[in-house]
Amino acid sequence: MSGYHVAVVGATGAVGTRMLKMVAESKLPIASVLPLASKHSEGKQVPFRDGTLTVHETTDDSFKGIDIALFSAGGSVSKRFAPAAVKAGAVVVDNTSAFRMEPDIPLVVPEVNSEALRHHHGIIANPNCSTIQMVTALEPIRKAFGLKQVVVSTYQAVSGAGQSAMNELFDETRAALDDKPLEPKILPTAGDKKHYPIAFNALPQIDVFEPDGYSHEEWKMIHETKKIMAGDMNSDAIKVTATCVRIPVPIAHSEEVYFEVADDNATADAIRATLAKAPGVVVQDDPSQQLYPQARNAVGSKEVFVGRIRADAENPRFFHMWDVSDNLLKGAAWNSMQIAETMDAMGLIQPK
Question: Does the predicted TM-score (pTM) go above 0.85?
Answer without folding.
Answer: yes
